[in-house]
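User: Predict the full complex structure for these chains.
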Amino acid sequence: MIKIVVIGSGNVAFHLIKQIEKSDEIQFIQNYTRLSTHIKEADLYIVAVSDDAIAEVSASLAVKNKLVVHTSGTQPMSVLSDHIRKGVWYPLQTFSKQKKVDFKTIPFCIEATTEADYQLLERVTVCLTASFFRISSEQRKSLHVAAVFVCNFVNQMYQIGSQICEEHQVPFDILRPLIQETAKKIQYLPPKQAQTGPAFRNDSKTIQSHLDFLEEKQMQTIYTLITKSIQQTHG
Amino acid sequence: MIKIVVIGSGNVAFHLIKQIEKSDEIQFIQNYTRLSTHIKEADLYIVAVSDDAIAEVSASLAVKNKLVVHTSGTQPMSVLSDHIRKGVWYPLQTFSKQKKVDFKTIPFCIEATTEADYQLLERVTVCLTASFFRISSEQRKSLHVAAVFVCNFVNQMYQIGSQICEEHQVPFDILRPLIQETAKKIQYLPPKQAQTGPAFRNDSKTIQSHLDFLEEKQMQTIYTLITKSIQQTHG
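Assistant: Here is the predicted structure of the two-chain assembly.
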């Protein structure tokens, strides 16, 4: 039975604890937060705090020769410098407070200083029903940048679409099936093969009529730039 | 029984014919293409050809006092000028040759010169198991622009993400669950409420480290522009 202490009181810590408690093969020991005075004995200490706090919080943990990991996509493993046995266990998913998390849809990016500790993290991941990938700190950084494009920037495209709908009294609901289908396609096609639309077809008449329609300067700039990007990809 | 002739030989015509044939309440009469010499008698003529060809193809149809519609998101209804009874019947979805189309996920944007013809198009849409919205030519234009953002531009964000993965030897597969979840959130949340990430948090340290990481000038420009757009939305 692998004993686990979770450090932190945010979204990730919350969902993690709930999932650990569901498993029979790993044991939730303690949620260590700002108000805790004493840290309990465990096999694994998961530091699920904000990026800026990882160094300080991990340094303050009074544990010796135990595996300490953080869950950040942006921080290198070396930020846990006070601990000999260290690792990173980064869930590459978007968490919302409002929504239940299905751990089956979370790939964990795992890194550790020793193979034994890597294996321990793999076992914990399996117990949580999640999937895993062996990812170095450098690779994780590239994944985090890529995630900003495919999650945050994609969501901003949804936001601009919804703004256009609102300005013209059209329900955004009409676009929801298209949004769903566009994401679904990517589950089995590479994005390059999935592309359609006026930029892809070099349909300059439609592109110009869209730019005339948009009016707002910043939307036009985004439209032009991403149109060019599509044309370069397929040029 | 509503009798239907489909004009055209592209993707939309192909999927449409297959679906009409499944219904017991509407009847597929003919697929009229470049090689056809004689057009058959029907209640509804659906012109599913490329935008540039609609005017010419529809003008060449030897039918009188029959409802003629096109399926384009960009063309006004008036492009069917040779016909008195006209309409637009625009399926707002992305079609791929490789993939089966589920008509339940297609909202049709309907417009017609008379209420009776509008009702006829609504009935046909229901027979195909699809959903419908009453949309004017002007509204349809705004929907088409919005669709470019939420479909084509979103797909280009996927493409850039996949390029970053490739350059750093990370499997793009790790990002697929995140892509899926980001689209799923939008099925019940407005995009503004769904946003997360460094731009949303005004985390300038992470933003700068991402820009340093990207190196390629055009990716940096896109990153900066969409980051600003997110910050304006949430400013």
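The beta strands of chain B are 2-7, 26-32, 44-47, 67-70, 86-91, 107-112, 131-134.
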